[in-house]
Amino acid sequence: MKKNLILFFISIYFFSFSQTIKTDLVYKVNEPTKKTDKPAPLLIFLHGYGSNEDDLFAIAKSLDARFMFISLRAPNVIPEGGFCWYPLEFLPDQKFKYDYAKAKESRIKILSFISNACKVYKLDSNNVFVMGFSQGAIMGYDLALAAPKKIKGVLALSGRMMEESKNLKTDWTKATKTKYFIAHGNSDNVIKIAEADSAVKFLKSKKIADVKFNNYEMVHTINGKELNDIKSWLKKAIDPPEKTVVAPTKLTVKPEEQKKK
Predict the structure, then answer these.
(1) Helices and strands (H, E) in the chain, number of each type
(2) Using CA of residue 127, residue 133, residue 134, residue 135, what is the dihedral sign?
(3) Quick one: which of 156, 153, 176, 121 has its CA closest to 239?
(4) Residue ranges of the domains in the chain?
(5) How far apart are CA 220 and CA 235, in angstroms?
(6) How far apart are CA 14 and CA 122, in angstroms?
(7) Given phi > 0 = left and psi -120 to 50 = alpha, else beta, which region is 19?
(8) Which of 43, 175, 193, 216 has the largest CB neighbor count within 10 A?
(9) pLDDT digit string (tens) for 96-141?
(10) Distance between CA 155 and CA 181 in Å, rounded?
């Protein structure tokens, strides 16, 4: 009887992780390899312009094994090959012309995907993180400012923040609780590091306290030191330090003082 029960629960577990999410986005899943008695936290990978869902997926093996990792493919195809979250035109001096309406469409698709993924895989909807590189980082900011209740943390790698994102009708009561890990290369030749600095200043101006900003000696890429910092940051984000309880001081009375009484 006991053996049958064990087999039953194992089958239920694997059945839940073999489900498909109702979406028109292409995605890849890396299941948590470290099982706990709690629902798994979720980390969504958002690739950069012209890339695909394979781009960041390999990073999963370097991060906390308790996470459910899902890498999404952007819905828009670009003529040169690859995919994008919204059409983009590269201008001189590292500036861009973009279609925010398409960015909003992608944002809606991603938020819907997150809700469905949490239901299908029975994930911890209070522990959803988004890691984006370049255009994916730009989308990460937009997601968190549009729906802060859904996003616990954003890892914005080599990205920037759109003015339209800053002007969203954000619920700042909830948005101030979002955690940010912002990373950029000092020699980034695609997006200036000043853009990352500008995003940090904006978030802090809105009283968002948990903003970590790291810069690295690199161009428009991700390096090993950055990955180590990401791993440490994610672990701290889901394992916040326990509050130490200070025991009340016990008042001791000397024998001579007792005699006086």
Answers:
(1) 8, 11
(2) negative
(3) 153
(4) 22-260
(5) 25
(6) 12
(7) beta
(8) 43
(9) 788 999 999 999 999 999 999 999 999 999 999 999 999 999 999 9
(10) 5
Which residue bears the tokens 């904006």? 202
Sheet with 179-185, edge to edge strand ranges = 27-30, 68-72, 42-46, 128-133, 153-157, 179-185, 211-216
Show the tokens assigned to 188.
């980034």
Distance CA 253, CA 248 (A): 16
3-state secondary structure of 250: coil
Q: Is the CATH number of domain 22-260 3.40.50.1820?
A: yes
Which tokens sit at 108? 């809606």
Question: Residue 152 is encoded by which pair of tokens?
Answer: 């616990």
* Residue 213 amino acid letter: F
Residue 14 has a CB neighbour count (10 Å cut-off) of 10
Nearest to 130 by CA among 43, 56, 201: 43
- Of the candidate ranges 73-77, 107-111, 134-138, 235-239, the one whose mean pLDDT is the lowest: 235-239
